[in-house]
Design goal:
single chain; Glucose Oxidase, domain 1; 14 helices; alpha/beta; 465 residues; 2 domains; Aminopeptidase; elongated
């Protein structure tokens, strides 16, 4: 015991010195981001000069060219494009809907087509409506009560859950699989309550899937605003004969050529150990994708710029990846992991920002106990910046395919209370991003990347001593 105490006393000055160095480095990172940051101006251009970046679109091509150009300007060791084929779906002309309580008595509804949906017939679709709270209700109603009708999925996000992503996860199945399941019972269309915790007039789009349903059996699917859902539900309770009309002209095209945008700083000591940070460059088309996920992209780009700006020389290779097609296919994330495996690359850590540009609260980690405990030992370094949330479990969709033995995955966790007000809706726009909050998030990500690079993960620390 005395020997162990003696060793600890001998190491104490080195531990204190290291902590002081880390405190200074984090302070430099935050100061540089808040006084000389680039993330907000990058997002301004991405949002206001390019706009919504749906996979396979012209704007997505422009976003690839713009972000690659910005990475080229940073003086990184390498910048390149990684080819990936992505789905191409277009919305067409603006959707239109109303409900009819009696002949000629109509009330308009705010709707939008779900991503991947088929169009309605050219003149639109009009039918009686059956309201359900979720997919599980379909079986209890059966074909007799559903055939020839429009199914109205009206399960709201659970408001008493503090973690809003849990509330989202509790009802998003009706958006993703609702049309496929309703079609099995003979429904002619579906309308889904928007994934939104507040009542407003913005319909929220998002991906949906028909699964293995034959093309001839696929039915149109749209989202209705939360205010619209409340109104429609009320009218159905008052008048069971209420009918719904909606029209949408969306279309699916063959897959299109696109790219992941990648840049890196090569490690000075362990260049074959790769630390990845990224967000997804594609967005939905209703807004300009500022929170989802322009913010994550520019924050990830800023990580590499802040590392260079503060003079830190990374030991390991630090790579930024702007993934294409997270929203309706995850093709970019899968392609990146596939190529990494083919090349035998050693990804020791990956961090994703895809929860909006709001005030950072901390991180979630897909890590074993040893790695999580090491990361927890750094928590005190973040407390001066009010970063306190360190949770084991969860990371990000695009980096998920990298999961493997020894790879630690993480996700930035900003305050999420307002995120679903904007998620996949027309109000996901630049003016709803706060410059200071965005810059704090970039600095928080950079600080974690710095610590991972300096100390390594538990596995790499053991190997390298």
């Amino acid at each position: 015991m005395l020997k162990k105490i003696g060793i600890l006393l001998m190491l104490l000055p080195f531990l204190v010195q290291s902590q002081t160095e880390d405190e200074k480095q984090l302070r430099e990172i935050y100061t540089t981001s808040l006084t000389n940051g680039k993330s907000y101006s990058w997002l301004d251009y991405l949002s206001n000069q390019i706009g919504g970046r749906l996979s396979g679109s012209y704007n997505a091509e422009r976003a690839v060219a713009y972000t690659k150009g910005q990475l080229d300007s940073l003086g990184l060791d390498k910048v390149w494009l990684q080819s990936v084929m992505v789905p191409k779906w277009t919305r067409g002309i603006k959707e239109f809907a109303y409900f009819e309580t009696s002949p000629g008595e109509t009330t308009n509804l705010d709707i939008c087509a779900l991503g991947g949906s088929v169009a309605t017939p050219e003149g639109g679709l009009k039918a009686a409506v059956v309201e359900v709270k979720g997919i599980e209700d379909l079986a209890s109603l059966g074909e007799e009560k559903i055939k020839g009708k429009i199914v109205f999925f009206n399960r709201p996000m659970q408001p008493d859950l503090i973690q809003t992503f849990e509330a989202y996860g509790g009802c998003v199945d009706q958006r993703y699989s609702g049309a496929a399941e309703a079609a099995k019972y003979g429904a002619v269309g579906v309308i889904v309550r928007s994934m939104n915790l507040r009542l407003d007039d913005y319909p929220h789009t998002g991906s949906m899937s028909y699964g293995d349903l034959p093309a001839s059996q696929r039915i149109p699917a749209a989202a209705v605003s939360t205010n619209g859902a409340e109104l429609l539900s009320t009218m159905l309770n008052l008048n069971k004969d209420t009918k719904l009309y909606f029209r949408q002209t969306c279309k699916v095209f063959p897959d299109a050529q696109s790219y992941n945008v990648i840049g890196e700083i090569t490690g000075s000591e362990f260049p074959n150990e790769i630390i990845t940070v990224g967000g997804h460059l594609d967005s939905w088309d209703l807004g300009d994708g500022s929170h989802d996920d322009g913010a994550g992209c520019v924050q990830s780009m800023e990580v590499l710029r802040l590392i260079k700006q503060t003079g830190y020389k990374p030991k390991r290779t630090i790579r930024v990846v702007l993934f294409m097609n997270e929203e309706n296919g995850l093709r970019g994330g899968k392609k990146y992991a596939e190529v990494a495996k083919q090349k035998g690359e050693n990804h020791v850590f990956a961090l994703e920002s895809d929860a909006g540009g709001f005030t950072p609260r901390g991180f979630s980690f897909d890590a074993d106990d040893a790695n999580f405990n090491q990361i927890l030992s750094w928590q005190k370094l973040f407390k001066p910046y009010l970063i306190h949330y360190f949770k084991q479990g969860g990371s990000g969709a695009d980096i998920g395919p990298l999961k493997g033995e020894g790879t630690v995955l993480a996700g930035l966790r900003p305050d999420s209370q307002r995120y679903f007000d904007h998620h996949h809706a027309a109000n996901d726009t630049f003016e709803h991003v706060n410059k200071r909050e965005l810059e704090l998030g970039a600095a928080t990500m950079t600080s974690l990347i710095y610590l991972i690079d300096k100390y390594g993960t538990v596995q790499t620390s053991k190997i390298k001593g």
